[in-house]
């Protein structure tokens, strides 16, 4: 049976102390470190806080309970020294205002309390009582609970006094679980007494032992200003609380306020019940109580004296010690120091109650001891003593350390009871147990109550530490009269190691035993413990040669115990453990190899993973992480198993080097990598070995495997390499087909409604929108550049390129081609000459990229599907050539300046017919024929304008038959040196460009890359015979509508268009391009860029149009070359540095293959892994001890002990496995089998022994490695 004094029976544990805010309190009542004191933290607002714990085990608990609107810290804390000479009206400053502020305040938290503590030093109960020696053995606690009537922020507690008391009772019971009968003293203020009364009433009625023990353990209660019969201030307080509740819209606790009213039902019932409780407690513990009343009133409080609680209400009962504190109700329990006169009153009462507690403890202890001498230890008396000592058990704990010291001195360790044949007095008292003899023999010296308590503690020590001694707490003690006692040998020389051959031996207290025990194990009869003595060695053995338990300090294997193993240590491959390990090894090998090759190949998943794929990206990543984790777990399991198998086989094999403690700890490197830092010494002895290096490598890769898989295998959105592809496009027309454009222009007006002008009207609207949009964006770019202090170059290719947009979300960027030096041209012709050509991308590429036939994944919001493609396609280009001229030079081209002609804007359509027709006339020669290519030499006629434009205005000429050029004539501002500027505009398709289209979910970029020798996708690389400079005859028709829509011909009737004015202001004033302004030619080219994009929608991708019809009713399919890079999911790293994880994946695969090969080489059979903690513990506990680990039993092995070699052997007689050091390998062992005098037949070799011999001889494939 378990003794009542056993710690496990009380649920206690050494060196553990849980603080009161936890469910229960465990106390360190048997720890030898008696100076232990729990750390003092902050005072909790609710629950218990230990303010002081006894240096030794506490004799009494003192609990402080605050009152209404109180706090477990502030209620008992003084801010400054009180002035005793100040009048009452000044001492009670704040008065009702302070009381009201506390009524509605929200209690501050720990931070506020700490800050206040630093600012204003306080005196706590702990600080004052700890100065008193009489309180050193007390455990002092403070109890906090929610006593606020109303809160401004949170909701107040609405529990009744009875409900709060039940909570307090349960909390006190929990905090005293380790010692339910320890004396208890309550110190309460205000409402706290009512709480204590209600709690003790409830405790007396409880059936639960721990709850009822609270009332039975109370020795005293000290009250401060408690309204036993209510307070007249309760009505006033309820009125204030109600007003505050209305203002703050927060409810208040009516239960407590109304309960404190005078003659309330609750206050009437509690005292009557409490009188019965006090009588019961007085019978048990001589219960007493003390009452302190407030001596001063508070200003503003109604009544003659201003007291919150009148004297007749705060006065205690007849048995109470009533006294006054010269403070008001709020300050009566706050003392500034030990020299406070009011504190001395309270301290005197506390000391008086503590003296009563100690007196009762000493008296009961002494009475029990005296009863031993008077009545002996008969069976009936044992039961009575048992019941008494159960009650005294908590009290005796405080003197256990002292008892141990005194009893050890009084009864030396080698003292044993006398033998029955040697002492007559012993015969007369032979029925008295050994422990009782000790007490009775020393009763003459134990008259002092303190030493009497020591004796009780000593009885407890014997009951716990000696399983052969009598315990007074055992109701059924065994009959021990047959045991014969004798003195044990005084030295280990009295017994030789050869005594193990004897048929009987003497052990313990001289008890005869017929079975053999290893001769080196000797026991000493001591009062405190029974333990082996010394070391005995045979002179026939070497220094290191020992029998079983040689140099052992403790008998780990009793001589009467035989420990043959129950099962074989080698398991077949089809058993659960080997099969599981083998399956995990195959799994780890296959999947780690798959992950490694996936990381190397970096596959792209295309339409299989993604938004519209068969597998969502999140699912793919989750599966990748899941499989990576399972690979890691399987790998760790397999490697640890293989490591254990290797070490176990090495330990079993004879002739091997054995294994070390550091080798056995290598498994923890993998399972707990942090142990390499904590226990770094194991690295010192094992890391440099081959097996240690393998394990260290496995540890590192196991830690990093999931990270490596995430970095290199998990699918990520990455831009793939550019892949050459042949794309298809639907083609319906050639470049710049005005009729096709008009028919396909999107407008709600049908052909029936406007059969003549539907197309042109729609096109002009599109020209206006797109041209102005592109033009404004281009000018804004120039403006931003100038604002930022940047300047453009005078070289055309280094100036901002032509730009625009299409479909509202695609930015178009062109290129300047056919570049010429403006300065050289101007100087050559001695006039301003601007010649620029802007190329824009083929618009048909956009439609082809979106065509599902080409299988290009479209961009998504997740960045998936972003792509970058380069296309070999012809690109449209517009050339703008502007020349500066004066009026006389323009005279051959101005109808109004011809002799006898007068320009009339209304009749211009008729007057224009008077101009000679081609080919009969080449018209007049001009000074700029060679620049523009006019005349019979070049085959083109010059334009004819009706008049000269006014300043900042322009006029157009686009009516010349069979022409390919549109002309713009404008007059720059007078500030420039140019009188007039004449510009020609024409378009072509150029083969010296490629198209680039980069698309994302947020937008796209559509651009050209022209005239670069390193551009492999330039169109003329694929069509070297493609003609460049074949100017389109159709573009002039598109340009005429474009010019009219942009008001470029408004100068005919003095329209003064803003667009024309801005264009003329961009005319250079010199012969070079200006760094802060775009030129007139650049502006016109950018503005005309939209005609190039619109003119190539659904246009051919060939350098020619191979159909007789200008357009096709059904589109045909044309193929073009492209290279496409798509952003989709791929197993790869996102940064180059992540390639450092490749070795992790590679080594995981390689070591998995090695582990699988090792398991297969052993044919899947698994040995018992002796490095596993449970197996190693079972092996070690049944093995002899050794001096090779001298001093390691407490703090563990250190230094060279880590490299001590060990092996696993078998006692072949017992078929018992054990572990020993290699230094003791050849030491003979003592069998635990019985000795028989009869002749024995030779024993046959058992399967277990045969298994051991086979494994220990290393007959496996890898036996040489061990």
From TrEMBL:
Q: Where is the composition biased (Basic and acidic residues)?
A: 477-503, 528-546
**Where does this protein reside within or beyond the cell?**
Endoplasmic reticulum; Membrane; Mitochondrion
Q: What is its main location?
A: endoplasmic reticulum
- Give the domain of life: Eukaryota
Keywords tagged on the record: Endoplasmic reticulum, Membrane, Mitochondrion, Transmembrane, Transmembrane helix
User: Which SUPFAM superfamilies does the record associate with it?
Assistant: alpha/beta-Hydrolases
Which stretches does the entry tag as region Disordered? 293-317, 469-507, 528-556
Q: Where are the transmembrane segments?
A: 573-598, 685-705, 1140-1160
**Gene Ontology CC annotations of this record:** endoplasmic reticulum; membrane; mitochondrion
Q: Which protein, by its recorded name, is this? A: DUF676 domain-containing protein
Which organism does this record belong to? Aspergillus oryzae (Yellow koji mold)
